[in-house]
């Protein structure tokens, strides 16, 4: 991540995040109501000190549900206080009793039935509450918070997407060179995800280096409705209208999540992306060989409802909401130089 360009310049202030797990709170927002009936059992939990998969498998064992019949929208960090919904296939109309379930660091908040299985990525976003301690320069951090509130931050995938020490990306490169083979489907998914995330970050950083911004549209850019997956190509005659909608945060300019299918942009915009990915041909070939479909992702994310409060001159509490797939550490990265554990997970 250190080689990626900053939107607001390299921060000079320092601070400590996650001095305590309670300093990093994540609340998952599915974005839709529960049905109250159906064969899927949704279990809302609050956890601390344990990872999502571990908790889900423990509840599945308690319910007598096969591991293949559990799911969740995304992973949540072990070293934080997190709230999320887990899903288990439990046919019938009865409501299983989870009162006897006990696991250190886990609290059952709600149990309700739902008609559809909860799938990976099927959430609106996450609400975050962060406490940053030992801040070296309150004035600079205040100024940057205002900049982030107005202009957002690069929508980079966080370091945790690439594994400890970037190992997921290293193994993906070895896989592309056929000197390594993933052992199972889950590992394949992790490595392919790391590959696309890396390529997206590279294009976004190159765009920021070239333009100094991520919200100035050019002819041929693939532009996305904010919060949606669909996109269209900006044409010359509609550029003023598209730019106005970008300024109003209704549209976002995208970068590629490479794979099979339409790349997205046209003309000079397409050429720029191709040049930005020069040297990554092996990774792109791997994605195509593994039948990963191409997609687009907004290069800029503006934290929603960003607000902050200083407890004293060196301690800051901040709250904001990010759409699914965006990382709180990408917000903090633009704010200050981080000290402490910064491995959050947001999907």
UniProtKB/TrEMBL annotation:
Key words, A-Z: Isomerase, tRNA processing
Catalytic activity: uridine(13) in tRNA = pseudouridine(13) in tRNA
Pfam family, one: TruD
tRNA processing is among the record's keywords: yes
Coiled coil: none
EC numbers: 5.4.99.27
Active site per database record: 77 (nucleophile)
Domain of life the protein comes from: Bacteria
Family annotation (InterPro entries): PsdUridine_synth_cat_dom_sf, PsdUridine_synth_TruD, PsdUridine_synth_TruD_CS, PsdUridine_synth_TruD_insert, TruD_catalytic, TruD_insert_sf, TruD_pseudoU_synthase
Amino-acid positions noted as binding substrate in the UniProt annotation, renumbered to this chain: 24, 126, 327
Record domain TRUD: where: 152-301
Gene3D superfamilies xrefs: TruD, catalytic domain, TruD, insertion domain
EC category name: isomerase
Entry function: Responsible for synthesis of pseudouridine from uracil-13 in transfer RNAs.
PANTHER family registered for this protein in UniProt: TRNA PSEUDOURIDINE SYNTHASE D (PTHR47811)
Similarity comment text for this entry: Belongs to the pseudouridine synthase TruD family.
Name recorded for this polypeptide: tRNA pseudouridine synthase D
């Amino acid at each position: 991540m250190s080689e990626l360009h900053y939107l607001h310049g390299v921060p000079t202030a320092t601070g400590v995040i996650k001095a305590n797990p309670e300093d990093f709170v994540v609340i998952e927002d599915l974005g839709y109501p529960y049905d109250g009936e159906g064969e899927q059992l949704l279990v809302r939990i609050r956890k601390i000190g344990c990872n999502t998969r571990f908790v889900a498998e423990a509840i599945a064992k308690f319910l007598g549900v096969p591991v293949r019949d559990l799911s969740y929208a995304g992973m949540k960090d072990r070293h934080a206080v997190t709230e999320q919904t887990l899903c288990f296939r439990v046919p019938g109309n009865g409501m299983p009793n989870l009162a006897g379930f006990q696991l250190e660091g886990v609290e059952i908040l709600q149990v309700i039935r739902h008609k559809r299985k909860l799938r990976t990525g099927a959430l609106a976003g996450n609400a975050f509450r962060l406490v940053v301690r030992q801040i070296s320069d309150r004035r600079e951090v205040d100024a940057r918070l205002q900049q982030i509130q107005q202009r957002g931050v690069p929508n980079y995938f966080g370091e945790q997407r690439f594994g400890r020490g970037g190992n997921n990306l290293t193994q993906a490169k070895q896989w592309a060179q056929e000197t390594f083979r993933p052992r199972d489907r889950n590992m394949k998914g992790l490595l392919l995800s790391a590959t696309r995330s890396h390529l997206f970050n590279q294009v976004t950083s190159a765009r920021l280096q070239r333009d100094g911004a991520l919200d100035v549209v050019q002819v041929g850019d693939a532009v996305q409705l904010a919060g949606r997956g669909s996109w269209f190509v900006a044409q010359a005659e509609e550029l003023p209208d598209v730019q106005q909608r970008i300024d109003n945060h209704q549209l976002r300019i995208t970068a590629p999540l490479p794979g099979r299918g339409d790349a997205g942009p046209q003309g000079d915009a397409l050429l720029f992306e191709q040049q930005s990915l020069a040297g990554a041909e092996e990774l792109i070939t791997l994605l195509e060989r593994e039948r990963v479909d191409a997609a687009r992702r907004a290069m800029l994310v503006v934290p929603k409802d960003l607000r902050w409060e200083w407890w004293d001159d060196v301690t800051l509490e901040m709250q904001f909401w990010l759409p699914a797939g965006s990382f709180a550490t990408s917000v903090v990265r633009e704010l200050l130089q981080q000290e402490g554990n910064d491995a959050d997970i947001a999907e």
